[in-house]
Amino acid sequence: MRILLLGKNGQVGWELQRALAPLGELLALARDSAPLAADLGCPEALVATVRHVRPDIIVNAAAYTAVDRAEREPALARAVNAIAPAVLAREAAMLGATLVHFSTDYVFDGSGSAPRDESARTAPINVYGESKLEGEMAIRASGCRHLILRSSWVHAARGSNFAKTVLCLAAEREHLEIVDDQIGAPTGAELLADVTAHALWSVRQEPSLAGTYHVTAGGETSRHAYALFVIERARAHGHPLNVAADAVRPVPTSVFPTRARRPLNSRLDTGRLQSRFGLRLPPWQEGVERLLIEVLGH
Ligand SMILES: NC(=O)C1=CN([C@@H]2O[C@H](COP(=O)(O)OP(=O)(O)OC[C@H]3O[C@@H](n4cnc5c(N)ncnc54)[C@H](OP(=O)(O)O)[C@@H]3O)[C@@H](O)[C@H]2O)C=CC1
Ligand SMILES: Cc1cn([C@H]2C[C@H](O)[C@@H](COP(=O)(O)OP(=O)(O)O[C@H]3O[C@@H](C)C(=O)[C@@H](O)[C@H]3O)O2)c(=O)[nH]c1=O
Ligand SMILES: [Mg+2]
């Protein structure tokens, strides 16, 4: 079985290099891999690469993930997150290959407080979310066999993410302000990659399992409580931080200015994945603890 992985150096792509390796012959590419081009901004080159490799499985871990910057670069976000996945899906359909793709809680508007399942109405409130939703829809419309895995708040030791940003800020500053009205589940890239490998293997055995699934770590938290957990656990590991324990101020999103709007309710219902694939999703704190140990070198 030949697997083509795109975006091998991202948070999820890096962990997929490890998790997919036992499933088949893995060819992992980055944007600038030579001699095979894997720039998702360049559809012709992408097509040439897929036709040359003739994979049984395409795993697309590449994406435009700069949420605020996307508001200023909507065309590039759409090229990478919507047009490239459409091209990959068309090629997968022609080859009879399975396409694995990742999407996000940001396809939803974040209203209410209930977790959303896969059939919930999508209504993105920023350019990144719009571009990711368009990518999902193109994949479904192509008719290719696919797994679309929607996750949230992904962190990894390698790459940039909220947890590592908080660690840096807490080392530099004495006071932090963190929004306390965005609720979701921080999800380790290694968990997402391992679930991907498991789901992919299951779909090979049972093609009717293909489709769209929500995949996050268990439990939920606010960004503020998440930041506090990162700070407390980093201290417990002996990491020196400047910020005072009572100086992490909770603030509403409405007073924390960012270019892109963010959904407040990012809760995803993962019941479908757990029951159909027989999987258990460990609590988010376990993933953050692992991240800290890796980042702090203990
Ligand atoms: N991060 C998160 O919180 C979440 C992410 N997701 C989704 O999960 C998937 C993986 O995300 P994650 O690993 O966190 O993202 P990262 O930002 O860590 O990695 C994205 C990768 O895509 C690559 N990339 C960007 N543009 C191009 C391009 N034009 N051509 C080729 N490669 C490109 C980047 O390469 P380079 O370094 O060269 O720019 C980078 O290696 C994405 O689909 C994302 O939408 C879903 C939910 C939450
Ligand atoms: C750094 C910082 C951020 N914030 C706020 C700003 C923002 O509203 C919220 C989240 O900020 P970030 O920019 O880190 O997170 P963001 O890049 O929006 O994270 C998202 O990335 C994409 C790729 C996804 O798919 C989502 O699941 C989600 O993980 O936290 C604070 O309140 N205080 C702070 O000190
Ligand atoms: Mg960000």
Number of helices: 10
- Helical/strand content category: alpha/beta
The neighbouring-strand order within the major sheet is 2-1-3-4-5-10
**Which topology of the domain at 2-159 and 186-218 and 268-281 does CATH recognise?**
Rossmann fold
What is the CATH top level name of the domain at 2-159 and 186-218 and 268-281?
Alpha Beta
If you compute it from the alpha carbons, what radius of gyration comes out, rounded to the nearest whole angstrom?
A: 19 Å
Write the element-wise H/E pattern from the N-terminal end onward. EHEHEHHEHEEHEEEHEEHEHH
Mean pLDDT: 97
Strand segment count: 12
Q: Which small-molecule ligands are present, each listed once?
A: NADPH dihydro-nicotinamide-adenine-dinucleotide phosphate, dtdp-4-keto-L-rhamnose, magnesium ion
| CATH homologous superfamily descriptor of the domain at 2-159 and 186-218 and 268-281 | NAD(P)-binding Rossmann-like Domain
The level of helicity is 40-55%
- Main pleated sheet: 6 strands, parallel
- Poorly predicted regions are none
CATH architectural category of the domain at 2-159 and 186-218 and 268-281: 3-Layer(aba) Sandwich
Looking at the structure, what is the overall shape? globular
Percent strand equals 15-25%
Distance between the termini: 38 Å
